[in-house]
Amino acid sequence: MSTVREVNFDGLIGPTHNYAGLSLGNVASQANAGEASNPKAAALQSLSKMRLLIDLGLVQGFLPPLPRPNFKALYALGFGADERTAIERAWRCDPAIVATVYSASSMWTANAATVAPSTDTKDARVHFVPANLASNLHRQFEGSQTAQLLQQVFADPDHFRHHPPLPGGVFFSDEGAANHGRLAPSHAEPGLHVFVYGDDGARYPARQSRAASAAVARSLELNDQRVLLLKQSPAAIDAGAFHNDVVGVANENVLFLHEQSFADRDLALARVRECAPGVEIIEAPSREMPLEDAIASYLFNSQLVTLGDGKMALILPVEARENQCANDFLKRVLEDDNSVAALNFIDVRESMRNGGGPACLRLRVVLNGAEQAAVSPLFITDPDGIERLEAWVARHYRDRLVADDLRDPDFAREALDAVSTLYGMLGVRLPN
Ligand code: SUG
User: Fold this and answer.
1) 175 is catalytic
2) What are the C-alpha distances in Å from 145 to residues 66, 165, 306, 351?
3) Catalytic residue (choose from 127, 138, 243, 258)
4) 27, 330, 388, 421: which has the highest count of C-beta atoms within 10 A?
5) Is the CB–ligand 1 distance for residue 102 below 6 Å?
6) Integer Cα distance of 207 and 367 in angstroms
7) Residue 199 pLDDT > 90
8) Does the predicted model carry a pTM greater than 0.85?
9) Is 243 a residue of the active site?
10) 235 with 345: CB under 8 angstroms?
11) What angle do CA 304, 343, 231 make, to 5 degrees?
12) What is the mean pLDDT of the chain?
């Protein structure tokens, strides 16, 4: 039996999780701006999701939250050289700036990087391009720190190759694996890399540029014949699909998606069929599943995972069960003759209210046996590890956070101390 498997690295939700309405075009982020958040519930939800995947027999990795607030950024913006002064002055200047440095957005590790397995790269190593997340201020603080974390997780240069985030800011705006899917007969075999970019024509900003997708494909050192660049539908972006993973997900030979994912649907699917022979496309037609319902339910922002028996399961947000169209469509998917054998619904409502479903919360890395052995065990968890993380959350997190709390320098210290305690407990170096 092949020892190649996909390992998911979930983002553990940090103690500053809040609803600041920072993401234009992200319907949930905009709708919940200013609401009270519950960081403790958020983190426990993310840990329950990890536990479910372990129970399903998968290897589960995680990335600890990045330290927030990001005082380095406030100092660099000229707000002063000590924590109290910097928060106070930044708040007086513009509370939105304070919100950006507090954001716990590193939880959405689908945006951490784009990853290519060693079967697909020229030097037969696993390649990582951390996303520059240039489209949003709060997210562009992540790239360099995430890169440092990934280098700790995948430290062995014989197996892993790390590239820097793309330079050039918005000219090469890259949001990582959320706009990338890999199709292959199985995880172990060479795959087709499908990069989906946005373009002009949408009311909301397209957060992945074509130039960035092409640059990521080059950096990953993929075979040109196995790269497909497809344009996202402006209608999907305008309806709230700010990342392509809001309207589709791929796993091995299966592509599960909404009819309105691509600008030119017929051409896109024809190209996919041509480049990935044997692909199984499970498509939700708009008449059965209006785009608005697809986005409200985050049906396609599910994890599609292969279980030990080779069958596939969808890990879906509970919102997909609550939405009539999504629920009916899912019932049909289960009854039809296709690879999806099971549905698992999970509650990640705290993240969902910022536009982050199950698929946003994980970075997928396909690894062979030797590569799995080379991954730092500090970042792989099991039921006991989950319990330790839950105890840490219970000890350090608040169960209510509102915008005004962010101006309190004591809360800033509390959050930073909690995260450095965690890094100390795990034996992981804090990124700077
Ligand atoms: O980048 N929300 C994130 C959600 C990311 C979801 N990821 C994927 N689809 N893969 C974003 O828009 C909202 C933060 C706030 O408003 O406080 C936010 O950043």
Assistant:
1) yes
2) 7, 10, 30, 21
3) 243
4) 330
5) no
6) 28
7) no
8) yes
9) yes
10) no
11) 35
12) 97
